[in-house]
Structure formats: structure tokens, C-alpha cells
Design goal:
- By secondary structure, the protein is mainly alpha-helical.
- It has two domains: 72 residues, no CATH class; 220 residues, MetI-like (MetI-like fold).
- It contains twelve helices and no strands.
- Helix 7 crosses helix 8.
């Protein structure tokens, strides 16, 4: 297992380097006169040149990248070009909002999708048909349309939850819960649909195995067969799908935070990308990639524990 984890970590580090190089290269292609944007169009050219030099933008792109990489390895991502705010501090201020959504969606998706998928795979019938229809709708309907319908129904018409805004748990736990409920529901629908369908299919396949019939012949209670033997063997494919769904949630958070007016990393990404604030953008890209690598590592470890054959793949 240790060599399995070390291989995944080494691959993750290599991926980080490649993505950082590609990202910096792409951000360097469109030449943006940052000094002119900061000082205004009426500023003298010598002042603009001095500002660009102070930011290190007068050097070749490769030199800029190597300087950035050396500082990033030490944990220094610099300061924002436009706000002069420390990059790590700016992200840390917004990260709790996005983490609230990600953790909430992951928990809701894991619990509901496994319950629905196992129930549909074991019982079939009405629940099975519901899961299949729900999966089709969850995949087919655009995320922004589902989000807008949820806002219109639960926030505008029923007035059960606020349509926009965010309140931290330190201010009011109930207020925080009310502000993240609709965003979590919006992000969870598609994830639940995909994972529940995968769990259902895996449970049906496992239930057809010879060892399950043997366990039934030995007189084991149905609940023990399902939750002790079937669920474990059916969980590996579902965990892989759950990990991929989490990666997709990072993109969905950008849309949801914009619609609900949440001051998270998603809305921050839109704001600073439109400005062309490279230090912020590079840090966001790196932390996103690190998050994806860690999630995939955890999923790989769990799958390797559930299915030892996967460790040598």
C-alpha cells in the first residue's frame, strides 16, 4: 500500500509542475499592460514602465515563471497586482464558504446516492424506476436551469430560504445553514443522480454473483448479505464516480456562487480572471489541482483497500 501511495504522490507532483507551466504560459500569451491598467490610461509611459518593472513584468516570461515557481515551492504566492493583498490571505478569507458547499454536497451525495442506489439495486420495482428517471433528468437538465428553478420555488415563491447572501457560522449557525442549503441542493442533484445510478448498477452485478447465492443458501440474514458483503464489493466503482463528481463540483461552485452571491473561491475566480490578476489566478489553479489530486488519492486508497487488485493497476 505504501508504494501504491508513493506512486500516486509522485504522479501528482509531476502533474502540478506540468499544469503550472502550461497555465503560466497561457496567461503570458495575451500581453496585458498591467501598469497601464493600474495607473490609468492618462499616466505617463515612464511611470507605467516603472510600475511594470516593480512587478517584474519587464523580464522574459520564462524568468518570471521560474521566480514564481521558486517562491511557490516555499509557500509564497506573492500579492495581488490590483489589490496588493497577500494571495494566500485572500484565498483563505474565501475558502470557508466554498468548503462549506463542497463538504455539504459530498456528504449529501454520499448518503443519499448510496441509500437510493442500494435500495434500487436490491428491491428494484418503483424505487429502481425512480432512480433511473432521476439519473436521466439529473444528467439532462442544465445545472444553471435547475439552480434557477430552485431559487424561484424555495426562495422567491415559498420564501423558505434567502435567494442571495452568506452568513458565517460564527455569526449564526441557523443563518449559515439557511444560506448554504439551496446552493448545496443545487450542486447535489446532478451528483446524486450519477452516483446513485452507478451504485444501483454495481449492486445488481454483485447480487448476481455466485457467492451471494451461497450466502443465501447458508441462511444469512438479507440485511447482513447486503450491508456486509454486497455493499463493500459494489462500492469501488461508486467511489470512483463520487471522486469525479467532486472534481466537477469545483466548476459548479463557480456558477452557484455567482447566482447566490456567495463570497467564495468560485466567485473570486471569476472576478480575478476578468482582471487578469496572474498571481491570484495561478494560486487558484494550483490549489484546485492540489485539491483534485488529494481527492483522487483518497479515492484510490479507498478503492485499493476495498479491492486489493486495484493497487497494482
Amino acid at each position: 500500500m505504501l508504494s501504491f501511495i508513493l506512486r500516486r504522490i509522485a504522479a501528482g507532483v509531476a502533474l502540478l509542475f506540468v499544469i503550472s507551466l502550461l497555465s503560466y504560459t497561457l496567461l503570458s500569451i495575451p500581453h496585458i499592460d498591467v501598469g497601464r491598467q493600474l495607473l490609468g490610461h492618462g499616466a505617463a509611459q515612464d511611470l507605467v514602465d516603472a510600475k511594470n518593472a516593480a512587478l517584474g513584468l519587464d523580464r522574459p516570461a520564462l524568468v518570471q515563471y521560474l521566480d514564481w515557481l521558486g517562491a511557490a515551492v516555499r509557500g509564497d504566492f506573492g500579492t495581488s497586482w490590483f489589490t496588493s493583498e497577500n494571495v494566500l490571505r485572500a484565498i483563505a478569507n474565501r475558502l470557508p464558504v466554498t468548503l462549506s458547499l463542497m463538504i455539504g454536497v459530498t456528504l449529501v451525495t454520499a448518503v443519499l446516492s448510496f441509500l437510493l442506489g442500494v435500495w434500487a439495486g436490491v428491491r428494484r420495482g418503483a424505487v429502481d424506476r425512480f432512480v433511473q428517471v432521476f439519473a436521466v433528468l439529473g444528467y439532462a437538465l442544465p445545472g444553471f436551469l435547475v439552480t434557477l428553478v430552485i431559487v424561484l420555488v424555495f426562495a422567491v415563491r415559498l420564501n423558505w430560504f434567502p435567494a442571495i447572501g452568506y452568513m458565517g457560522p460564527s455569526q449564526s449557525f441557523t443563518g449559515w445553514l439557511s444560506t448554504v442549503t439551496l446552493p448545496v441542493i443545487s450542486l447535489s442533484i446532478g451528483s446524486i443522480a450519477g452516483v446513485a445510478q452507478q451504485v444501483r448498477g454495481s449492486v445488481i452485478d454483485v447480487m448476481r454473483q455466485d457467492y451471494v447465492r451461497t450466502l443465501r443458501a447458508r441462511g444469512l440474514p438479507p440485511w447482513r448479505i447486503v450491508f456486509v458483503h454486497v455493499v463493500r464489493n459494489a462500492s469501488a466503482p461508486a467511489l470512483a464516480v463520487l471522486g469525479m463528481q467532486f472534481v466537477g463540483l469545483l466548476g459548479g461552485a463557480v456558477l452557484v456562487e455567482q447566482i447566490f452571491g456567495l463570497p467564495g473561491v468560485g466567485s473570486m475566480t471569476v472576478t480575478y480572471t476578468t482582471r487578469g490578476d496572474v498571481p491570484i489566478i495561478m494560486a487558484l489553479v494550483m490549489f484546485t489541482v492540489i485539491g483534485v489530486i488529494l481527492i483522487n488519492l483518497v479515492v484510490d486508497i479507498l478503492i485499493g483497500w476495498l479491492n486489493p487488485k486495484a493497487r497494482i493497476a
